[in-house]
Design brief:
Bound molecules: pyridoxal-5'-phosphate
Strand order of the largest sheet: 5-4-6-7
Distance between the termini: 28 Å
CATH class: Alpha Beta
Number of strands: 9
Number of domains: 1
Order of helices and strands: HEEHHHEHEHEHEHEEEHH
Radius of gyration: 21 Å
Largest sheet: 4 strands, parallel
Structural class: alpha/beta
CATH superfamily: Type I PLP-dependent aspartate aminotransferase-like (Major domain)
CATH architecture: 3-Layer(aba) Sandwich
Shape: flat
CATH topology: Aspartate Aminotransferase, domain 2
Helix content: 25-40%
Number of helices: 10
């Protein structure tokens, strides 16, 4: 809730002056939040953008309700993963065709691990941050169980030494750029370089905007079942393949990216994005 500024009028005045001078202040109106609430959580669930309820209403009532099955073509539902992915790609510094808006974060993490492990066949180890967001650890464990891989829990601080010793056995390292509990920012560039030097790939989840090419998956704060934006660097785009996939979006795929394909779109959440 808003702090009681009654006892500190000079702070309230200063805050009001800063707000008045803030070029971003008007953006507050683009979000719906309960009156009086200061909401800073962008991790599990961001604030509701005001444009989302009418967009979802349109998807449900007009596109689903009126156009029915024709919507796959007439409202371009087939192309939604790439259309939405490219729109997000512009925000996060990705080239067209590199970002796919898919199903839930969990499914896309699984997809990204599968794509990475396939590119590093014969390497039996999946290195995971023990402090990773629980979903990411559960998915890594499920993926490893299903594919006969071994999960090694290694903290980001210990990762370079681990990779120097056993990196030749590591297929992929799954790490968050930020410890979600403490806010500690890990050195993405150094850890990516250490993994690459060992011939391993890195799955960063989530990824801050514009951090250069890593072997990464992206998640944006949206609504429930908002979908992960899966991004692979250009040099791997032609080879990375998703396990859980749907039909390609004709004409939307960049040459060289023709095997990075969204799963059947989660139409309502894509409409919301
Ligand atoms: C960092 C991170 N990873 C994974 C998830 C799981 O997302 P989903 O429920 O869409 O699979 C969340 C959800 O908040 C998250 O914050």
């Amino acid at each position: 809730m808003l702090p009681d500024t009654g006892r500190y009028p000079e702070l309230a005045e200063r805050a009001a002056a800063l707000d008045a001078a803030d070029p971003l202040a008007g953006l507050r109106d683009r979000f719906l939040l309960p009156t009086g609430l200061v909401y800073l959580d962008g991790n599990s669930l961001g604030a509701l953008p005001a444009a989302v309820p009418p967009a979802i209403e349109d998807v449900v009532r007009q596109q689903w309700g009126n156009s029915l099955i024709r919507s796959w073509n007439s409202h371009a539902w087939w192309q939604a993963p790439l259309r939405v992915g490219d729109a997000i790609g512009r925000l996060i510094g990705a080239a067209p065709g590199q970002t796919v808006a898919g199903d839930s974060t969990s499914i896309q993490i699984f997809n990204a691990l599968a794509a990475a492990a396939r590119l590093r066949r014969g390497r039996p180890v999946l290195a995971v941050d023990p402090g990773h967001f629980p979903t990411d650890r559960y998915i890594a464990a499920s993926f490893a169980r299903a594919h006969g891989l071994e999960v090694r829990e290694v903290t980001p601080a210990a990762l370079p030494a681990f990779l120097a010793g056993e990196g030749g056995r590591v297929a992929v390292a799954a790490y968050p750029p930020v410890d979600y509990r403490t806010g500690e920012l890990h050195d993405m560039a150094a850890l990516t370089a250490a993994a690459h030097a060992a011939g391993a790939l890195v799955l960063w989840e989530p990824v801050p905007r514009r951090r250069g090419a890593a072997d990464r998956a992206r998640r944006a704060a949206g609504g429930p079942r908002r979908g992960l934006r899966l991004q692979v660097p250009e040099r791997r785009a032609g080879r990375a393949r998703l396990s859980l996939r749907g039909p390609a979006a004709p004409g939307r795929l960049r040459p060289g990216a023709d095997r990075v394909d969204g799963a059947r779109p989660a139409v309502r959440s894509h409409g919301g994005v």
